[in-house]
Amino acid sequence: MSSLRRIASMIAVFACIGCAPLSYYGQAVVGHFDLMARAKPIEERLAEKDLAPELRARLESVLAIRAFASTELGLPDNGSYRSYADLQRSHVIWNVVATPEFSFKPRESCF
């Protein structure tokens, strides 16, 4: 079975078992691919001469924290936190959770 067929099959299964319409999953896939297309390696971003000083400092911190995690904590030295995507907005997604008053049990609903 081709990769495209597998992806289409997975989307169809999720559409049938979830409470969201197929358009919800479609926009999620499109959004994910847009995010990945905008991502650039942090080293590449740091080489940009016109990078804002605050962003430069944050990206340099990311690399320092990654190095510490790998060398001092023994965490895997993999591709995590190695790229940055400028989305031109403050958040990637919004999660909304509702609970009854004074409770931590979430209400479940589909909309």
Structure explained in plain terms:
This protein is 50% helix and 4% strand. The protein has helices spanning 3-17, 22-38, 42-46, 53-71; strands spanning 40-41, 83-84. A two-stranded antiparallel ribbon has the order 1-2. The longest helix is centred in the middle third of the chain and has 19 residues, at 53-71. The two termini are 34 Å apart.
Report a brief summary of the structure.
By secondary structure, the chain is mainly alpha-helical. The chain has four helices and two strands.
Task: Write out key terms for the chains shown.
111 residues, mainly alpha, single chain, extended
Q: How many β-strands, per DSSP?
A: 2
As a percent range, the share of helical residues equals 40-55%
Main structural class: mainly alpha
In what order do the strands lie side by side in the largest sheet?
Answer: 1-2
Distance between the termini: 34 Å
Note the overall shape.
extended
Rg for CA atoms: 19 Å
Order of helices and strands: HHEHHE
For the largest beta-sheet, the strand count, sense and barrel status come to: 2 strands, antiparallel
Rounded mean pLDDT score: 87
Number of helices: 4
* Low-confidence sequence ranges: none
- Estimate what percentage of residues fall within beta strands: under 5%
